[in-house]
Each structure stands twice: as structure tokens, then as C-alpha cells.
Write a structure and sequence with these properties.
This protein is 40% helix and 16% strand. It has 15 helices and 14 strands.
């Protein structure tokens, strides 16, 4: 048996987002977001559900903070709902909305839990959507206003800020693939969105630095590192394009390298860039590359890249794909990709500090007759990913913390309530919270700053 001990000061936490847990979608002056509109249109969510009530965290936050305290959670990453604070997206502030986050922050600090705030976890006010949404450049300035207002109100107590969660989802998943709000299918709009999101990130970093003494600010990107599905050159090329599409398009400009040239050529060829990068203005790239203090990485699975449109690309799977190693999302469980990802970011981009801002899995384990939720597969998933992260730290990767997704089961966007990512089970009928076995396992990991694995 070997004990994997994490560096002193390593931070252990959990993550959630506002729309997925808060509910109270139209209370106390909150405006409407693109997700409120999207979920109320039939056909957009797998089980026809909405986040109208979700985990009712808006009313039960005290109980949730107490639960985190019992589980020894050190860091709580949550997002603010933009239309709760600025119902029209800019201008008039909804004080009741700000007060909610104010109370939450005070409650967390009183419980000894450090808040990490995400400013954008996908809740664009509909008023801004109706003016053109993220493909419109003005949305970036409105986001800077949200950063300004929120950090002025909370920055005396909250020192850790994440501007955006998963710009790939805001741009590609929502504007190219149409799976998330606003449900567009337009490659050019998706690339404009990506640019304006990155631009707004740079603007927000500057506001946060101005408003928050000792601020630590970063952005959370999601990664699905590609592996060629076979040894064919076509699949190798497909893997490179996938990483360009998913990761390098965001990382390169954030770290001062402009948009990657191979991807600009690729997007020209696909018709996504009919007028080249005409939406990039002088000075934008400097703003986007404004230095940050950390990079947040959200990792769940890898991507097997196959060049489907190549006629002689015969099936020659060289990587096993056992059905047992998939989560309820049908995502492959593959911890080694996390190890390689961390190394790639450290050695390739010289990222000064990294947090794993999300990692977790959906399994549908439910309470047994005695009320216990045994979620062995989640414990294995967390243990193996933490072991991969520990190995990367041994190479010098500056990993400062691990935030598990998610504190509790919640509204999984277009999948509704068909998924359960929580270490705490939520009974949506009664709103009862039941810590799963993984929650107790994680509590012990935190207490020991590590865990024991079999040799
Ligand atoms: O639930 C989401 C979260 O909102 C963003 N990252 C991935 C999670 C699981 O799909």
C-alpha cells in the first residue's frame, strides 16, 4: 500500500453552478436568461424538465453550506446568475439578487469555506440575446459590467474569481452544434462568440484586478484530449484538428499566441470563416492575453478521433473501449489523459498555476432500503483521477487544488435530471440531501490530504 500525499496547502473543494442548483428562477427581481427560455421550449431538454426549482438552493443554501462544512470541504466554487444581479444584462442592479450572494459568501466564510466565484456559467440575460447575444461585440462590454458590479460588491471577501466556465460550450456547443442555449447552428456565429467571450474575459480580468485587492483570477476551460483512434495518418490529422477545435483555439490566444494558423485555415475551408478573422480588432489579442493567475481545467473524458469521411480509413481500433468503463453520460473513464493534459499545459504553455475546477462522473446509484447510497464507481473514478493528478505534480506541474463536480445531483442542462453527478444525492420530491459513500470517502481524503492506494 502507498499513501499519495498532496503538497501542503493543496486545496480540496466542490463545484456547482447557479442555474443547475438555485431554482427561484423568477423570484426577487431575477430577470430571464437564455436557459430559462430554452428549457421552456418543448424538445430542448431530454426529460422535458427545467431548472425552475432544481435543488432549491436559493432557499436552502444554509443547509447546503452546513453540509459542506460537515464534509470538510475547503473550497466552494459556485457561479452567479447574471440576470439575478443585472436583470437586463446591464444598467439597473437588482439589489435583492446581489444580497443573496452576499449572504452566501458570509455564510461560507463563517463556515471556514473559501468561495471561488464563476462569473459566467451560461446564463446570458435574454435582453442581451435579443440584441444579438455573444456573436455581437457589445455583449463583451456588458459582461465587463457584470464583473465590475459583482466584484465591487463581493471583492472585499472573495479573492478567487473565474471569468468564464467552458468557452467551448458557450461557443461551439451552443452556437455551432445547437445543443445548449440559445440552440444555434452556425459555425461563423460560434467563432464570433468564442472571440467575444475571450475578449470579455480580458476586460473582466482588468476590472477584477482594479476592484479586488489580492485577487486571484483565471478562466476555466474544458478539455477532451484527442487520441487518434487508429495509427492511420487520417486519424492522426483528425486528432490534431479536434484539439485545435476544442482546446488550442482558446488556449493559444489566452497565452499570447494568436489564433492557431492551422485552425484558421481549417475554418476557412469549412466555410466558418468566410471573411477571415474580420471580427478581431486591433488590440483585441493583447486584451485577451491579459495575464491571469491560474488556469482552471475541467476534465471528464478523452476523445477518440476518427476521420470518418476518409474512405480507406478502415476500422482498426487500437485502444480498448470496455463498456464497463463508461459513465451514465456514456463518457469513457480514462484517467491517464488527465495526467498527459496536465503535463501538456505545464510544459507546452508554462501555465503558472492550475486548478482542476471540475472532474467527476454521473452514475445513477440511489439510496438502498437503509438510506445509504453506495457509489463505488464514483469513488474509483475520483481516486484514479486524483492518482493521475498526483503523478503530474511529481513532474513539477503546479497543480494547486481539486474541485469535484459536483457537490450535489443537479440539473444537467439538455440532459435534465437524467444524470446524477453529485457526491450528495438529491431527492427532488422532498429536496432531501443524502451524502453518498463518495462524500465520506472524499471527506477522509481531505482530512488526510491524500489517500492510500494498493501497489
Ligand atoms: O454539469 C456540467 C457543468 O455545468 C459544466 N461542466 C460539465 C458538467 C457535466 O456535464
Amino acid at each position: 500500500m502507498t499513501k499519495l500525499t498532496f503538497p501542503p496547502g493543496f486545496r480540496w473543494g466542490v463545484a456547482t453552478s447557479a442555474y443547475q442548483i438555485e431554482g427561484a428562477w423568477n423570484e426577487d427581481g431575477r430577470g430571464e436568461s437564455i436557459w430559462d427560455r430554452f428549457v421552456h421550449m418543448p424538445g430542448n431538454v431530454q426529460d422535458g424538465s427545467t431548472g425552475d426549482v432544481a435543488c432549491d438552493h436559493y432557499h436552502r443554501w444554509r443547509e447546503d453550506v452546513a453540509l459542506m462544512q460537515q464534509l470538510a470541504i475547503q473550497v466552494y466554487r459556485f457561479s452567479v446568475s447574471w440576470p439575478r444581479i443585472l436583470p437586463a444584462g446591464f444598467g439597473q442592479i437588482n439589489q435583492a439578487g446581489l444580497d443573496f450572494y452576499d449572504r452566501l459568501v458570509d455564510g461560507l466564510l463563517a463556515a471556514g469555506i473559501t468561495p471561488f466565484i464563476t462569473l459566467y456559467h451560461w446564463e446570458l440575460p435574454v435582453t442581451l440575446q435579443d440584441k444579438g447575444g455573444w456573436p455581437h461585440r457589445d455583449t463583451a462590454s456588458a459582461f465587463a459590467e457584470l464583473a465590475d458590479v459583482t466584484s465591487r460588491a463581493l471583492g472585499d471577501r472573495v479573492k478567487n474569481w473565474i471569468t468564464h466556465n467552458e468557452p467551448w460550450c458557450t461557443s461551439m456547443l451552443s452556437h455551432e452544434l445547437g445543443e445548449h442555449a440559445p440552440g444555434w447552428r452556425n459555425g461563423n456565429a460560434a467563432l464570433k462568440t468564442a472571440h467575444h467571450v475571450l475578449l470579455s474575459h480580458g476586460m473582466a480580468v482588468q476590472r477584477l484586478r482594479a476592484n479586488v485587492p489580492d485577487v486571484q483570477v483565471g478562466i476555466a476551460l474544458n478539455f477532451e484530449p484527442a487520441v487518434p483512434a487508429s495509427a492511420s495518418p487520417a486519424d492522426y490529422h483528425a486528432a490534431r484538428i479536434w484539439d485545435g477545435y476544442y482546446s488550442r483555439w482558446f488556449l493559444d490566444p489566452l497565452y499570447g499566441r494568436h489564433y492557431p494558423a492551422d485552425m484558421v485555415a481549417h475554418y476557412r475551408a469549412t466555410g466558418y470563416l468566410p471573411h477571415d478573422l474580420d471580427f478581431v480588432r486591433h488590440g483585441d489579442l493583447d486584451l485577451i492575453a491579459t495575464p491571469t493567475d491560474f488556469l482552471g481545467i475541467n476534465y471528464y473524458t478523452r476523445h477518440l478521433a476518427r476521420a470518418a469521411d476518409v474512405p480507406d480509413n478502415l476500422p482498426q481500433e487500437i485502444f480498448p473501449d470496455p463498456p464497463a468503463a463508461r459513465t451514465e453520460m456514456d463518457w469513457e473513464v480514462y484517467p491517464p489523459a488527465l495526467y498527459h493534459l496536465l503535463n501538456w499545459l505545464h510544459f507546452g504553455y508554462r501555465v503558472p498555476k492550475i486548478y482542476i475546477t471540475e472532474n467527476g462522473c454521473s452514475y445513477l446509484d440511489a439510496p438502498d432500503a437503509g438510506g445509504r447510497v453506495s457509489d463505488e464507481r464514483r469513488i474509483r473514478y475520483m481516486r484514479d483521477h486524483l492518482a493521475a493528478a498526483h503523478r503530474a505534480i511529481g513532474n513539477g506541474v503546479p497543480l494547486a487544488g481539486y474541485l469535484q463536480w459536483s457537490l450535489m445531483d443537479n440539473f444537467e442542462w439538455a440532459r435534465g435530471y437524467t444524470q446524477r453527478f453529485g457526491i450528495v444525492y438529491v431527492d427532488y420530491e422532498t429536496q432531501q440531501r443524502i451524502p453518498k459513500d463518495s462524500a465520506y470517502w472524499y471527506r477522509d481524503v481531505i482530512a488526510g490530504n491524500g489517500f492510500v492506494i494498493a501497489d
